[in-house]
Write a structure and sequence with these properties.
Blueprint: H1 3-15, H2 22-25, E1 31-36, H3 44-59, E2 64-69, H4 77-86, E3 91-95, H5 118-125, H6 128-134, E4 142-157, E5 172-175, H7 179-187, E6 191-194, H8 200-205, E7 211-214, H9 216-221, E8 230-246, H10 247-250, H11 255-289, E9 293-295, H12 299-320, H13 322-336
Parallel strand pairs: 1-2, 1-3, 5-6, 8-9
Antiparallel strand pairs: 3-8, 4-7, 4-8
Helix pairs in contact: 3-11, 6-13, 7-12
Bound molecules: D-xylonic acid.
Keywords: Signal, Transport
Protein name: TRAP transporter substrate-binding protein
Family: Belongs to the bacterial solute-binding protein 7 family.
Length: 338
């Protein structure tokens, strides 16, 4: 080191300015971030978390570890989210639906038949609309690292095939703890019973409820086929998954650590969506192989059901809010070209 550079370093030191190269400032500390899941470890959420965890270990020289917990061991969507908000839990993978009491505008994703396909969902969630919703989370104590996928929801029950609107009449249907889902299934004529995900299997087994609605992967992952005879391919809603991180913990991390988490959550997103969609096809076949009677609803009848549910949009638009509705429907119009 020349005399000149020594003098410059001394001056910088006195001025409190680090002379270390930028990249070494991203000091990675030994971290273990626990993540709560309602599903079991064989679910594609596990593939996403494995990819995300491999990424964080690689990017931090083995310092930052993602530690999944399964089957609601650390709470259900809502209670685990409350733990994340309080800072007693680092992460949770949760559907948006149970959080609408905290952020009402998320209810837009619960509107029946909002999305027609995954491509639309990805474009809306990964674009300015998804960013708009994510920007609301720090105010309630969370940071959304990325949008992952729960998926398109279908209906199962133990009483009879649902082939037409009238078949919903009187069916006791478990729904997520969400006012729009409760209202939707009441409008169809069902007795909507809000319940946490972890309670579904025993409620179906004891006939406390007749049916429930979830993506194929969840129906298989939780073995609902053991206690449900009929699967109707209603595709009545698409559920996004939030990868929520505790803001209290987030604020203790360096900028470098925060960047690794965000970028690795995006790596996990690609893997989780890919496996979720691949597995969804196999899962439907497995449900049939496990004895479920599967039926589709005729297009004309599905239009009739969609028409019946149009009122849900009117009844919940005020709660969701004009800005969220205009944003999502504006994005969908741009995507669909109409
Ligand atoms: C799992 C839940 C589940 C959801 C439900 O934690 O509750 O029916 O579809 O995926 O988020």
């Amino acid at each position: 080191m020349t005399v000149k550079s020594l003098l410059l370093a001394a001056v910088a030191l006195l001025a409190g300015v680090s002379t270390a190269p930028a990249q070494s400032q991203a000091q990675f500390q030994d971290r273990v971030f626990r993540v709560s899941n309602g599903v079991s470890k064989e679910h594609p959420m596990g593939n996403g978390l494995a990819a995300m965890g491999a990424c964080t270990l690689e990017r931090t020289g083995g310092k930052m570890r993602i530690q999944p917990y399964w089957d609601g061991a650390l709470g259900n969507d809502l209670t685990a989210t409350q733990s994340v908000r309080s800072g007693t839990l680092e992460m949770v993978l949760t559907s948006t639906a149970p959080l609408t009491a905290i952020i009402p505008s998320l209810g837009v994703f619960d509107l029946p038949f909002l999305f027609d396909n995954e491509e639309e969902a990805d474009k809306v969630l990964d674009g300015k609309a998804g960013d708009w919703f994510a920007a609301k989370l720090p105010a309630v104590g969370a940071v959304n690292l990325a949008w992952w996928e729960n998926g398109f929801r279908h209906t199962t029950n133990s009483r009879h095939p649902i082939t037409k609107l009238e078949d919903f009449q009187g069916v006791k249907m478990r729904v997520m703890q969400n006012t729009i889902f409760i209202d939707t299934f009441k409008e169809l004529g069902s007795n909507a019973v809000p319940m946490a995900f972890s309670e579904i299997y025993s409620a179906l087994e004891t006939k406390t409820v007749d049916g429930q609605e979830n993506p194929y992967n969840n129906i298989e992952n939780m073995k609902f086929y053991e206690v449900q005879k009929y699967l109707t391919l209603s595709k009545h809603a698409y559920s996004p998954t939030l990868v929520l991180f505790s803001k209290r913990v987030w604020d203790t991390l360096s900028a470098g650590e925060q960047t690794v988490l965000k970028e690795c959550a995006a790596v996990g997103r690609a893997e989780q969506r890919k496996v979720n969609r691949e597995k969804s096809k196999v899962s439907l076949a497995n449900l049939k192989a496990n004895g479920m009677t599967v039926n589709e609803i005729a297009p004309a009848e599905l239009d009739r059901i969609r028409g019946k549910l149009a009122v849900i949009y009117d009844r919940h638009s005020a709660t969701i809010g004009k800005e969220a509705l205009d944003l999502v429907f504006g994005e969908l119009k741009a995507i669909r070209g109409k």
